[in-house]
């Protein structure tokens, strides 16, 4: 494999972006479509045959000696959030491209076919819904739900599909079946600080955390800040602050399980310096890989809502917005990835993923694993996110070894 060729691939793909700071390559936009077409050409030049399915997923196939055998697949995504960096998702695709190029360079033949998959719409930035491509591929996409999706400019998902030569009414035809794929592994930047702090080159992902999300609305009383005594107040902000702190405290008590709790949005009305806040809205994200641990934090949130409403004289209601189940990676593949690292003398760490990935859906279809490479300072979804080419090449070596073992080199 060639480090400089990998570097050049990153430089070339970064050109496909809308205006703004960092990378802006949202799902189903012209920028993403142009990037996708560029990559299709690169995979074809590497000798692969490429097709686009009914969801917009790009599937590049390197034929094996026995074409009827199930494929060994890898993949990730190239769509981005607003003001993104160059590595989230893209790292998995460009490393897969380099692996395929190297196999062609060396005339390697495998028994099983290989695939590199560019999943469509992994990020929720445009339509507020994530991993649409992998959900479609695994038969987990709700058609009724997709019809309601609209971006900030009023463009519906149906219209975005049309702009890409796709038909949302046919998206169910993207579904694949268990006997088609032998195994799937996704390489991704960690998006956190653990590997860098532990000085490990590779993260072998054991499980992917899933969130439960809530909207908490608080009704207090908006009053004059100068004329309302402290013991007469029904301050929605302070009630919300107590609830937010209870989430933090509960999550800290679950450190051994890696469960986290975040109040990502906290808005108040009327929002004037001389007015006691009358209403507050909190959006809470609680996630982890251990179901029991996660539910303990949820229970604390619910208890806090009840207690704060009573002690502060507030009206509080809470809606559950979504609930997803944590996903375990295939234990056999986890052991195989660790064994490859050992044989190559690569430092590794078994770890959970706090972020969601397309692998969550693929795990419902076939044995699935994940490889992490370090993220400098743990930054991601940020123009400053960075992983060195040398670190990516270490990940590429592990990915290549895994795919060749699974596909059986002739």
From TrEMBL:
Pfam families (UniProt xref): M20_dimer, Peptidase_M20
Keywords: Hydrolase
Domain Peptidase M20 dimerisation: 213-309
Superkingdom as given in the UniProt entry: Bacteria
InterPro entries: Amidase_Cbmase, Bact_exopeptidase_dim_dom, Peptidase_M20, Peptidase_M20_dimer
Gene3D superfamilies attached to this UniProt entry: 3.30.70.360, Zn peptidases
Family label: Belongs to the peptidase M20 family.
Protein name: M20 family metallo-hydrolase
Gene source species: Sporosarcina highlanderae
């Amino acid at each position: 494999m060639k480090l400089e060729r990998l570097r050049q691939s990153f430089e070339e793909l970064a050109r496909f972006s809308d205006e703004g700071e960092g990378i802006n390559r949202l799902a189903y936009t012209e920028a993403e479509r142009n990037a996708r077409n560029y990559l299709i050409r690169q995979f074809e030049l590497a000798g692969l045959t490429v097709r686009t399915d009914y969801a917009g997923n790009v599937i590049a196939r390197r034929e094996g000696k026995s074409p009827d055998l199930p494929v060994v697949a890898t993949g990730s995504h190239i769509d981005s959030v607003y003001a993104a960096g160059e590595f989230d998702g893209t790292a998995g695709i460009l490393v897969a491209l380099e692996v395929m190029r190297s196999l062609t360079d060396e005339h390697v033949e495998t028994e099983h076919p290989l695939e590199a998959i560019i999943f469509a719409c992994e990020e929720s930035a445009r339509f507020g819904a994530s991993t649409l491509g992998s959900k479609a591929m695994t038969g987990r996409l709700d058609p009724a739900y997709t019809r309601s999706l609209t971006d900030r400019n009023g463009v519906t998902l149906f219209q975005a599909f049309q702009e890409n030569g796709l038909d949302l009414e046919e998206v169910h035809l993207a579904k694949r079946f268990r006997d088609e794929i032998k195994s799937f592994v996704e390489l991704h930047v960690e998006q956190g600080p653990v590997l860098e702090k532990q000085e490990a080159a590779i993260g072998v992902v054991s499980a992917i955390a899933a969130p439960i999300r809530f909207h908490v609305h608080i009704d207090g009383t908006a009053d004059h800040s100068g004329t309302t005594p402290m013991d007469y107040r029904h301050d929605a902000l302070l009630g919300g602050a107590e609830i937010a702190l209870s989430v933090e405290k509960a999550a800290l008590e679950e450190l051994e399980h890696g469960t986290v709790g975040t109040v990502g949005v906290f808005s108040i009305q009327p929002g004037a310096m001389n007015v006691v806040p009358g209403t507050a809205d909190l959006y809470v994200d609680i996630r982890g890989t251990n179901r029991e641990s996660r539910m303990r934090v949820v229970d604390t949130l619910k208890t806090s809502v009840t207690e704060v409403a009573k002690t502060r004289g507030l009206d509080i209601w809470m809606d559950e917005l979504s609930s997803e189940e944590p996903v375990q990676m295939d234990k056999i593949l986890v052991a195989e990835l660790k064994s490859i690292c050992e044989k190559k003398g690569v430092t590794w760490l078994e770890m959970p993923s706090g972020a969601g990935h397309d692998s969550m859906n693929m795990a419902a279809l076939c044995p699935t694993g994940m490889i992490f490479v370090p993220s400098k300072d743990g930054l991601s979804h940020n123009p400053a996110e960075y992983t060195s080419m040398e670190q990516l090449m270490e990940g590429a070596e592990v990915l290549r070894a895994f795919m060749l073992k699974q596909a059986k080199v002739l």
